[in-house]
């Protein structure tokens, strides 16, 4: 009589939403670094300002901003910079949170234990959402406070420049990653394959 043996094979399939969320977090992190390190948040003629420095273009023939640097030079922001420091601190914190959320997502993709995967994805989602919140607060506080303090520059014709737009891009990518992690509630699809093996009796071998 044939001997029947049954084996169960576990197959874990990585869902593509997790991989897309990983890419979004990476893009958001680099965009945050870019907007933090540039001086093109606001512009008025040949004068521009970022979160750390304010600069005057080299082709600017006269200083249009009171207390601004000479043409072709940059200087540290010195006028009522409390809110700018707060915005910079929030964005740096958001970049750190996005960085850790990225690696937690990587650990979740690589982990074999399903419980550990769940924990990694859960904390990645929390960190990403917190980073999005800090970015939103920063991007709202910055223009509001600047409008209040605009009189200190002695000039009222200002435009948001590309660094501010990049910051919004980072926020959108981080928010998209958070949504993908939240919507993908299955975390991982696990399939159990049952395989039955029939061994012939010894006398037939």
Automatic annotation (TrEMBL):
Q: Does the keyword Transmembrane apply?
A: yes
Which residue ranges does UniProt annotate as crossing the membrane? 19-42, 86-107, 119-142, 162-183
Give the record's GO CC terms.
cell-cell junction; membrane
Assigned keywords, A-Z: Cell junction, Membrane, Transmembrane, Transmembrane helix
Q: Which compartments is it annotated to reside in? A: Cell junction; Membrane
Q: Which domain of life is it from?
A: Eukaryota
Q: How does it sit in the membrane?
A: Multi-pass membrane protein
User: Which GO terms of type biological process are on file?
Assistant: cell-cell adhesion
What is stated as this protein's family in its record? Answer: Belongs to the TMEM47 family.
Record PANTHER family: CELL JUNCTION PROTEIN VAB-9 (PTHR14399:SF5), P53-INDUCED PROTEIN RELATED (PTHR14399)
This protein's name: Transmembrane protein 47
The organism named in the record is Wuchereria bancrofti
